[in-house]
């Protein structure tokens, strides 16, 4: 087996439970580090065009840092990724009220599963192996009423690395009561390998010609807005920073890009995003089977988060690509549903492909 897996102790939670670290490495210089805490994607190291290997994600060096992770660096977020307006939704005639842990423009909403979402849970883990890849499987049982969500939700996340420099993440969930589910990964990327560098010159292309319009609280209005002729048009490769500061109301709401694009094509696994950093030559390709893709450009990084190597992460020094169901989907009948019922299985498959050009 060309891909190796090394597991070691990473520390203990305040209640004494141990946390393990898992490192997947292939023979082409790609190393992926995962933690039991939050099923976190803690690091991704890849070579540039000259063979120099660097970590291309934001995060922390030790468990203490991850325990204070307020920016969702590397997080597997749930039960519901992104925002729910006013932290409320109705399901089968019953109103459910969730924590409002985010307030863009002073408008409270529920964000990324609440005060203690899946990113703040200790997951069980096990090694995975198949002919061309190795991986780590994570599992967590979210009890009925956790963060005010209905139903006991059983969640599994399998992360695989292969020799083709592809990192695959497969989410599965089942429930014993009707509930809502929307899971994704929230890695912060900077393909320069230098966390001090802005990501403005990263060139981005998206398989999307519509974006969800939002209000000042970054909640979708329900309109799918054509991207052509606007700063949201990435149908051809364009630097992330080229139009990010234009006088556009949607950009003003997010202080940059923090919006969900409507992806083209059916919901099968397909390539939807390409990012290239010109100096290093590193390229990231994203595949997903979801209908939406949230692009976030680190607009709320402000130099207060002290991360790997003691670096303080500054404004727009990373971007996130978060495939998912649409934000606030439970409150929009016209959106792809995020409802999961007993006897059904929620599935989401996504993959990152790393290369150099």
Task: Walk me through this protein's architecture.
The chain has 357 residues and is mainly beta. It has two helices and 27 strands. It has a nine-stranded antiparallel beta sheet with strand order 11-12-13-14-27-23-22-17-20, with no helix packed on it. A five-stranded antiparallel beta sheet has the order 1-2-3-4-5, with no helix packed on it. The longest helix has 6 residues. The two termini are 27 Å apart. The model has no long low-confidence stretch (mean pLDDT 97).
Number of domains: 1
CATH topology: Beta-galactosidase, Chain A, domain 5
**Helix percentage:** under 10%
Helix-strand sequence: EEEEEHEEEEEEEEEEEEEEEHEEEEEEE
Largest sheet: 9 strands, antiparallel
What is the 3D form? globular
Strand percentage, roughly? 35-45%
- Structural class call reads mainly beta
CATH class assignment: Mainly Beta
Average pLDDT value?
A: 97
**C-alpha end-to-end distance:** 27 Å
State Rg. Answer: 19 Å
Number of helices: 2
Secondary structure tally: strands: 27
Low-confidence stretches: none
């Amino acid at each position: 087996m060309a891909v190796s897996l090394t597991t070691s102790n990473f520390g203990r939670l305040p209640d004494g439970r141990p946390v393990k670290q898992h490192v997947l490495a292939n023979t082409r210089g790609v190393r992926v580090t995962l933690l039991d805490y939050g099923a976190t994607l803690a690091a991704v190291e890849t070579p540039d065009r000259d063979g120099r290997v660097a970590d291309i994600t934001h995060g922390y060096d030790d468990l203490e840092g991850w325990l204070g992770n307020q920016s969702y660096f590397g997080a597997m977020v749930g039960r519901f990724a992104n925002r729910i307006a006013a932290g409320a939704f109705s399901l089968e005639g019953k109103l459910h009220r969730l924590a409002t842990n985010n307030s863009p423009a002073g408008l409270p909403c529920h964000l990324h599963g609440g005060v203690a979402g899946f990113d703040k849970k200790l997951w069980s883990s096990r090694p995975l192996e198949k002919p061309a890849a190795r991986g780590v499987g994570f599992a967590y049982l979210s009890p009925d009423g956790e963060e005010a969500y209905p139903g006991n939700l059983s969640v599994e996340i399998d992360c695989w690395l292969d020799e083709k420099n592809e990192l695959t993440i497969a989410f599965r969930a089942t429930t014993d009561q009707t509930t809502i589910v929307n899971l994704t990964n929230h890695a912060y990327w900077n393909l320069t390998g230098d966390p001090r560098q802005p990501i403005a010159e990263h060139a981005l292309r998206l398989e999307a010609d519509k974006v969800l319009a939002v209000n000042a609280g970054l909640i979708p209005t329900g309109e799918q807005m054509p991207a052509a002729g606007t700063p949201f048009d990435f149908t051809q490769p364009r630097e992330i920073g080229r139009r990010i500061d234009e006088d556009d109301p949607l950009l003003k709401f997010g202080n940059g890009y923090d919006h969900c694009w409507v992806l083209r094509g059916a919901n099968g696994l397909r390539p939807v995003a390409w990012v290239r950093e010109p100096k290093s030559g590193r390229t990231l390709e994203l595949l997903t089977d979801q209908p939406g893709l949230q692009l976030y450009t680190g607009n709320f990084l402000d130099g207060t988060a002290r991360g790997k190597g003691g670096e303080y992460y500054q404004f727009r020094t990373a971007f996130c690509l978060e495939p998912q169901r649409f934000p606030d989907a439970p409150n929009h009948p016209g959106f792809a549903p995020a409802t999961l019922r007993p006897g059904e299985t929620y599935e989401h498959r996504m993959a990152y492909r790393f290369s150099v050009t």
